[in-house]
From TrEMBL, chain A:
Main localisation: membrane
Keyword Cell membrane in annotation: yes
UniProt name for this protein: Carbohydrate ABC transporter permease
Keywords in alphabetical order: Cell membrane, Membrane, Transmembrane, Transmembrane helix, Transport
Similarity field: Belongs to the binding-protein-dependent transport system permease family.
InterPro entries the record matches: BP-dep_ABC_trans_perm (IPR050901), MetI-like (IPR000515), MetI-like_sf (IPR035906)
Domain of life: Bacteria
Membrane-spanning residues: 13-35, 77-98, 110-130, 142-161, 189-210
């Protein structure tokens, strides 16, 4: 009995301490980036100024004056929001069909969709550049929205499929008995029941779209360039511009961190594939 | 209802996106630039150009590797995505020969003869200039004069490698966080590949023979790489295989390096006032261990705005531009682009603030990119052939493996030789 009590007391202290240590380790890079963004480029690399320094906003001023931050931010919002909506519009009916009307091929289709994520992006970079230029789509919002949607579609369908599978088929069939057509089933039954799962999936999809850097850097010039490209452009081979780079990175990840903070409950649910019942 | 609203929002956003793209543009140039202090300054100085000419300038700043990738794919496909591109000395003669970039001819006022001869040669093909330098560099020895004096050593111009090693040994004090020699070790043809190639040049080694067969298995290469590995392992900072320009600059500014051999541009970033400069060492032959590089502006053949682009380059690489930066309230004479024009080094205001100017000019003037009997190809720390980046990257990986002790120098050079041989054969050189 005493051993059990001791064990419980130990667990009560050890686990939270461990959780805090792990959380701080994960949070430190973000904290360091934000801190560095308020240092001059010269101070940013000096260990003696790690925590004690004179804060400056010059990096943020430079970001908006010299790099047109708001144009990149606007493009990020347009492409990430549009791609998320488009992905859901395609993924919800797909996942619905596979969850409630499966065929013998459903499992294989799901696996095939997932396997497309295994293709290294670099393998199709040059064909993509040639084709999109020939089609006049290079550096357009439309292209980036399509690319972001397609690369996220497999994982979104998988997530939604998992949520929908938790909804008893009987409920859907009861709707059918009441005279609902397919669209009615999706609108009146499926979406209200799976709303938590859809919301968390949408949030994750939005985060993936916002953070995507390989294609958004390589398929844009100016008109559709997103914040990823702004960060990429601030890396310098000859020159220690860590203060400036940190400011740009902070401003780029800031919106997504705030969004994630407010929606962390849904995010955890989405990441753990929680049940919707 | 919610889904319907979402669909409406998606449609509206898509239309907004398409509309944004379809906006008409006035006379506008899109310029792909490397993120370099001089280019960032140019964006501000060029506001006057836009005011004067009405030409709007769209700057696309990119990391060096991504810039190469984007510009290469755009230029090779005649894409015309960019009107002006930043390219280096490795690309300029190759792309000029391939017709991917336009030849540059400027008016008399431009004074093309004022461009440093080594830069002109490195950016030309068959005597035609294909890219105009906005900033150029060589390499030299930068060392802590206070540490050298305290240790009783000196480093002379074009000193022998043995003396440089002895100086590094004398300044080496790891217990107090000072390492004798900080040198590039990070893998990459422009990182450790560039520095090791200059060491090899000075040991009498060359990448290829007259038939373009790789020579990495020669005794000269073996001696050069063994010297480099021994110097850095004996007197370099720990983890040197991860260090390139920026990492060493940070170490140097934390007073952790006795000497550093690297790009002359580094001199303008050094904060410790006890710095002295010397021309790069050699190993007893006339070829020094200094390099030659320029970031330059070129006009891709696919652009529809070639004339406007050339006019901008003529302004941005002119003597007037140097004056504009020097007299600009935000910048001044310490920020003018160097390694570009001979006349810049004659400006008294520049001489007053640039302690390194004389050493930099001497280093650039002594670099010889042209083909010679010893080195039958164009380029100093690289070879101006399209296959070199691939060969140099493989070489850089092997050298980092040798430096970290994962491989012997002999094995690393043998592997690099095999990779180079395979790439050159596949490319049809022999």
């Amino acid at each position: 009995m005493a051993i059990v009590a001791q064990h419980t007391k130990f667990s009560k202290i050890a686990w939270p301490v461990l959780a805090w240590v792990v959380a701080l380790i994960f949070f430190f890079p973000i904290f360091y980036m934000v801190l560095t963004s308020f240092k001059t480029d010269a101070d940013a690399v000096k260990p003696e100024f790690l925590f004690s320094f004179t804060p400056t906003l010059e990096n943020y001023a430079n970001m908006t004056e010299n790099y047109d931050y708001w144009r990149f931010a606007r493009n990020s919002v347009i492409t990430a929001v549009s791609a998320t909506i488009f992905t859901l519009v395609v993924a919800v009916p797909c996942a619905y069909a596979m969850a409630f009307n499966p065929t013998r091929a459903t499992k294989d289709i799901l696996m095939w969709m997932l396997s497309t994520k295994m293709l290294p992006a670099a393998a199709v970079l040059y064909p993509m550049i040639f084709m999109t230029k020939a089609a006049g789509l290079y550096d357009t919002h439309f292209l980036i929205i399509m690319v972001l949607s397609l690369i996220n579609l497999p994982i979104v369908i998988w997530m939604l499929f998992t949520y929908f599978k938790d909804i008893p088929k009987d409920i859907i069939e009861a709707g059918k008995m009441d005279g609902l057509n397919t669209w009615g089933e999706v609108r009146e039954i499926l979406i209200p029941l799976a709303w938590g799962g859809i919301a968390s999936t949408a949030l994750l999809c939005f985060i993936f779209c916002w953070n995507e850097a390989y294609w958004t850097v390589r398929l844009t010039t100016t008109d559709a360039a997103t914040l990823s490209k702004l960060i990429e452009g601030n890396r310098a081979p000859e020159g220690l511009f860590f203060g400036r780079l940190s400011a740009v990175s902070t401003a780029a990840v800031g919106p997504i961190v705030v969004l994630g903070w407010f929606c962390q409950k849904q995010l955890v649910q989405g990441l753990t594939f929680g049940a919707v019942k | 209802m919610k889904l319907r609203n979402a669909l409406r929002a998606a449609t509206a956003l898509s239309l907004l996106a398409t509309g944004a793209y379809a906006d008409g543009h006035a006379k506008e140039l899109t310029i792909a630039i490397v993120n370099n202090g001089h280019m960032i300054n140019m964006q501000k100085v060029a506001e006057a150009y836009t005011e004067e000419t009405g030409v709007a300038l769209n700057w696309v700043s990119l990391e060096e590797g991504v810039l190469r990738e984007q510009v290469t794919s755009d230029t090779a496909t005649g894409g015309g995505q960019y009107d002006i591109i930043n390219i280096g000395m490795q690309e300029a003669p190759i792309w000029g020969a391939a017709g991917w970039i336009e030849p540059l001819e400027f008016g008399d006022d431009y004074d093309v003869e004022d461009i440093l001869p080594a830069m002109r040669a490195g950016l030309s093909h068959d005597g035609t200039l294909y890219a105009a330098p906005f900033y150029g560099e060589s390499s030299m020895v930068m060392y802590r004069k206070d540490l050298a004096d305290a240790a009783g050593v000196t480093i002379a111009d074009n000193d022998s490698w043995d003396n440089v090693k002895a100086a590094a040994a004398a300044m080496h004090d790891p217990d107090n966080g000072v390492y004798g020699a900080c040198l590039r070790g990070k893998p990459g043809w422009g990182d450790n590949g560039a520095f090791i190639t200059t060491v090899a040049n000075s040991f009498g080694a060359a990448w290829f023979d007259a038939d373009m067969k790789p020579q990495l298995d020669s005794p000269e290469w073996n001696a050069a790489v063994n010297f480099y590995v021994d110097l850095l392992n004996s007197y370099g900072p720990p983890g040197s295989e991860g260090n390139s320009f920026n990492e060493i600059l940070a170490l140097y500014n934390q007073d952790k390096c006795g000497l550093w051999i690297d790009a002359t541009i580094a001199a303008s970033f050094l904060e410790n006032p006890n710095v002295a400069y010397a021309q790069s060492p050699n190993a007893g032959n006339p070829v020094g261990a200094n390099w030659l590089w320029a970031w330059a502006m070129a006009v891709p053949a696919g652009t529809a705005n070639a004339e406007e682009a050339k006019a901008f380059i003529e302004w941005a690489t002119s003597k007037d531009y140097v004056q504009a930066v020097g007299n600009h309230p935000d910048f001044g004479w310490g920020s003018v682009p160097t390694g570009q024009r001979a006349s810049t080094y004659q400006i008294p205001e520049f001489q007053a603030v640039a302690k390194f100017a004389e050493a930099e000019l001497a280093a650039i003037d002594s670099a010889a990119p042209e083909a010679t009997d010893l080195k039958p190809y164009v380029g100093v720390q690289f070879v101006a052939i399209p296959e070199f980046p691939e060969i140099g990257s493989a070489f850089g990986q092997e050298m980092a493996a040798a430096l970290s002790g994962a491989k012997s120098v002999e094995d690393a050079l043998a592997a690099a030789q095999a990779a180079a041989d395979s790439i050159m054969k596949e490319a049809g050189y022999y």
